[in-house]
């Protein structure tokens, strides 16, 4: 079964979309079969991905071949079922062949030498059916989250040659759709810049993931057996990824990351699944008061590379805009693959 990883942070502009695409592109380059899902209302990941299949604009994609269409379809299909319906007969979670064909038709794919990078585009111009609109509709029906779970399962099952990873680009704001992704995912990673604004919401973001599980566990119409039946265990943190790193960092940047690490220790976040050789344990160099022997920050960093700072070499923005894998993300991709072991 494909592993689901989401990338999120309460702060925008920290490299979530770039990281989602670049990790996916590098996975595909390494022979993995990868699907990208764009849940950000801005649709930036979709705008990148359509270039892989020579489509100029997401607005050119037929509405019935979009993520918006699938979300509304599954929301409508499952909004009326009850917890009792599912517990009495799990067949109610199965969809018909027509629905499965709609799912297959919504998937676009770019082949690599041994793997592929697939995506389902998100259109931002569909009135009353943009991602935020659909999240609001889902929030009105407690069983709407079940529809999203079944949709993800049907998408994964539609890949006849198998699928290794589903990577989800999440927006800064948490809504009903994003909460469903929290429940459905296996792992998550938080990209951040080493500044006060970008890191200030990281601990809160992780706390919200935990609170989502608690809330749905004790929510009478969903929690308990149904949550166990339809969703997964709480997703595991892969690590905090520092992006836009500059070789000449100010001492305050290192102190900020050290402080973030301390915050995560304070709220007792479960340690990342990345092995210790991938984590940064030298915070005491920058902060004598830092707590030792526990780190959430990945030692590997994504450097600030653009066309001006990297003379004679196109930077990450250039490669991402061209929907091409950049070697800067190759190592972090290998860390993810080694940590998960798929």
From TrEMBL:
AAA domain location: 2-211
Superkingdom field: Bacteria
Pfam name, any one: AAA_31
InterPro entries: AAA_dom, DNA_Partitioning_ATPase, P-loop_NTPase
Protein name, entry field: AAA family ATPase
Native source species: Criibacterium bergeronii
